What does this fold into?
Amino acid sequence: MEFEDFAPKLSMLLYGVIAFVVIIGGLLLLLDVVPNYFARRREAALVAASVSTTDGPAPPPSRRLRKPGEGLLGLAFLIPALLLLLIGLVVPAIRTIILSLSNGDSTEFVGLRNYGWIFQENDIIRVLTNTLGWVVLVPLLATGVGLLYAVMVDRARFEAVAKSLIFLPMAISFVGAGIIWKFVYAYRGDGDQIGLLNWLWTTLGGEPQQFLNNAPWNTFLLIVVMVWIQAGFAMVILSAAIKAIPSDIVEAARLDGVTPWQMFWRVTLPSIRPSLIVVVVTITIATLKVFDIVRTMTNGNFDTNVVALEMYNQAFRYQENGQGSALAVFLFILVIPIVIFQIRNLRRQREV
Amino acid sequence: MTTTTPVLAGEATAEQPPRTAAGRVRKRLNSRTATTVSIVIALLWTVPTFGLLLSSFRPEDEIKTTGWWTFFTNPQLTFENYNEVLFGRSSSSGQLAQYFVNSIVITIPSVLFPIALASLAAYALSWIKFRGRDWVYIGIFALQIVPLQMALVPLLSFFSRGVSLGGVTLMPAWDLADEQKFIQVWFAHTCFALPFAIFLLHNFVSQLPNELMEAARVDGAGHSKIFRSIVLPLITPALASLAIFQFLWVWNDLLVALIFAGGTRDTAPLTVRLAELAGTRGSEWQRLTSGAFVSIVVPLIVFLSLQRYFVRGLLTGSVKG
It folds into this structure.
């Protein structure tokens, strides 16, 4: 492991940073030079205007004379980002839709056959039901735990530390989390168990289990990992929302003598409803795209496959571009109703 | 946690700081239950990581035969796992030092580019008047919901085969080999990050006071000057939170790296290597535990030291969206 091994990489990094400085610096320089040209023209126009209308009040120059440069300048600020979005997202997304209507190596138009395939193969139907399980359970459990915890530690003595503990998994990669939990679920046929779960299980008198091999519980155990990661996100957002509830509402409810239970259901929950929806929607969308956890822990074996992993396998392992693209489009279609729900909620919120 | 404040503190006088509804609920619910539940949750959320961390310091045969909790009766610590997984020479060892450098090389430009481009775009979308501005913003905003899976196949073929329309090559293949593949990873990460980055920064930039901009304009500052000397300093907290988001996303990403970086030690980041180790050497726990921790430690440090910015970004990013 000598320096030579790293040298080409580090020089690539250097090139990257130089490219960054040149591109962004050049852009800013350009943005300085071009408007200056317009400014000079404007000045000239101003001078001319003030000469001709010396006695009347001068028209507000900034409003009338900035117009010609503005649109162009806006474009110059925007173009790099727009170009990248176009090349990296918009055009590929459209291409993917076209590919999804073609066969495996994209040479022949096959209509909706790839979409029919999604709903016919037994394996893929399994993938769909698994994904459904994920999408129902993860938002529910993660939001539930997050909310419970936010309420429980609110104003407790070690609130900041307690929150950090739950929040920490958000910094861990899905791959890292997958390994952490694979270790928890680890199985040994004989001798001491090294996995926490099997240790608890055998201590309670059970036979050691290969937890990750037994459907349908293995899918549930993978879901636990996602809940573990997302609960912190839910907790932070909901905790902030809880703290933002106006105290007069709380006081009024208290004067009316509500029980804590009623307080929670009639005051806390309705007040944080918008944040709750945001949390559920965000986690749902993230869950739909879950890929790393399943790939790391079971690689989709033992009936644990999900749509995003199957999409990857079809497109990049089996080179079935048509079926892979159809699955990608299917993912997109699944996201749309969730987003519409979210937008309608936001709109209703604004009307109130 | 049960004895935090005197029970009647909030009810005594109006001067007391108002309690939140949740605090009241927690208080009135049997406080002991609340404490127990929160401790159980906190344990569930920390013990797995702790077990991994502790195991990574245990000798190989200890890890493989006994649970990490036996450490407390039979403490043995070693750095051998880290030495082996980072610098081992055999192909079965992690060789993670290589991949660690790859992760760094991938991450730095993939954070810098989207932030710079997004802040420019966010400024233009907020403070430069041009026709169709709102529609451009709505379009970018909407792009956030496109799963990146939608872009993978065509973007990869864009890099490897170029663009041709009806037999005419509009753009040749990039033909990147070995280390040059970093470029396509940067490119992909930058593209995928932009919609959210622009959205987040737009939230901040558009809320800067109008008077400030007017005053600068009256003083003769152009857009470029305003952007550099007024907007950028004022949105530094937003830039910081975006940088943390993007850093965590890129460092922890597996999908984009798998497709655009390839699997070799020339370019693949830690996550790709770890996933590979977990697949092919799933019972080599001495490598997996230490390897996982190597990949976790950097984001953990960043996260813990900059948590404030991260949370602020989360709150603006999602509560408004």
About this structure: Chain A has a mean pLDDT of 85. Chain A is about 75% helix and 0% strand.
